[in-house]
Amino acid sequence: MANGSLKVGDEVVITATVRKRVTEDRVAVLIPSYHQPHSIVDTTPSISSGQKIELIGEVTRVDENTVTVSGQDLGITVSRDAVRKRSS
Fold first, then answer.
1. pLDDT digit string (tens) for 24-72?
2. For the chain, N or C: smaller number of CB within 10 Å?
3. pTM for the predicted model, two decimal places
């Protein structure tokens, strides 16, 4: 998804899939190319398993094949294909 023009400071979006609610205020999500358990803060009462959600963060590192993204619920390294630049 992301082309070679990604740079540190760019705002990007990762589309994740909701796995399940783990607490009243957290849900477990699957993030493409990130092979670790991950949960985010989400108090939406109607969120359901399989639902797609967008996680927004800022690029803090760019390598040949990977991007590190940080944000409120992020601090992960994923493949460049897992992110897209956020439209203004």
1. 999 999 999 999 999 999 888 888 999 999 999 999 999 999 999 998 8
2. C
3. 0.85
pLDDT at 77: 95
Considering its fold, how many domains does the chain have in total?
A: 1
Query: Which stretch of DSSP H or E encloses residue 23?
Result: strand 11-23
For residue 45 the two structure tokens come to 């009462």
Which residue is associated with the tokens 């956020």? Answer: 86
CA 85, 22, 37, 74 dihedral sign is positive
Partner residues linked to 15 by β-bridges: 54
Calculated CA dihedral for residues 24, 44, 20, 34, nearest 10 degrees: -110
Q: Is residue 22 part of a domain?
A: yes
- Asked if the model's pLDDT at residue 4 lies above 60, the reply is no
User: Which amino acid does the sequence have at 44?
Assistant: T
Structural domain contains residue 17: yes
